[in-house]
Fold this protein.
Amino acid sequence: MARHPSGRIVFVEEMDSRGENENAWDFNLGPAGGSVPFQGSQWVDSPASYHGSSSTFNFGDGHAEARKWVLADTLNMAQSTDTSTSDGVKFYHNPNPPNNIDVMWVANAFPCTINP
């Protein structure tokens, strides 16, 4: 069980017009240690941007939040319908800059063994 259910994402409003989100939404976490925890995190499946420039996230305690995307890199990726992928199967997007505030927000709320 998560130690911080109010701060851990359970459901994500995802972007799937590209067919990238097969079964579940995914995200690659960067290392938890270091001066900037989770720097190097990467989008595997893109979040949505169906509500202007935001996406909705539901958390382990039952509350939901609309996250307005701050950086153009995130918004462009979320609104894109480009189906090209690096491996022909999954979508990957290295955020620009690497410490993208939107990616860091998701990384800090993404539940996993290193971030219970």
